[in-house]
Specification:
The protein is of the alpha+beta class. The chain is built from 5 helices and 5 strands.
């Protein structure tokens, strides 16, 4: 056992499963059941996720991390913000959110497209250029 962490559990290879600062360490692949990509469309880090309000078909089947993600999504959150809040890697959040999207518990908030695209608006481009020059 590690003397700095009395009783620290160890894995089969002797690696510690407990970190002094972070507490128990769970490998990302264990959280996602070995998957590295979501089943559906890839999620952008700025995609806004929001809970649909539908009840989970079998609440006991959601992992603790999925329940935490679903609770955060009661209010719209960006994928990157969810990763930060839950202190999980972005890839893990993408997989977990993808599962919740597939089950209809979380949706991606889509914004309506304005009639004038910002990248085509010459006035906006001039203002951006002026501001950059001012720096």
């Amino acid at each position: 056992m590690d003397p700095s962490v009395p009783g620290a559990p160890r894995g089969p290879g002797g690696e510690r499963w407990l970190d002094e600062a972070a507490g128990p360490v769970v490998r990302p692949y264990a959280v996602t059941r070995g998957r590295t990509r979501p089943r559906g469309e890839p999620l952008d880090i700025v995609a806004i996720l929001v809970a649909t309000g539908r009840p989970a078909p079998e609440p006991g089947r959601l992992t603790r991390e999925q329940r935490r993600l679903l609770a955060l999504c009661r209010r719209p959150h960006a994928v990157a913000d969810i990763a930060s809040e839950l202190r999980l890697p972005l890839g893990v959040i993408r997989v977990l959110a993808g599962d919740l999207i597939d089950s209809g518990l979380v949706g991606i908030q889509r914004w309506s497209t304005p009639s004038v695209q910002p990248h085509n608006d010459p006035n906006l481009l001039r203002r951006v250029l002026d501001e950059l020059r001012a720096l």
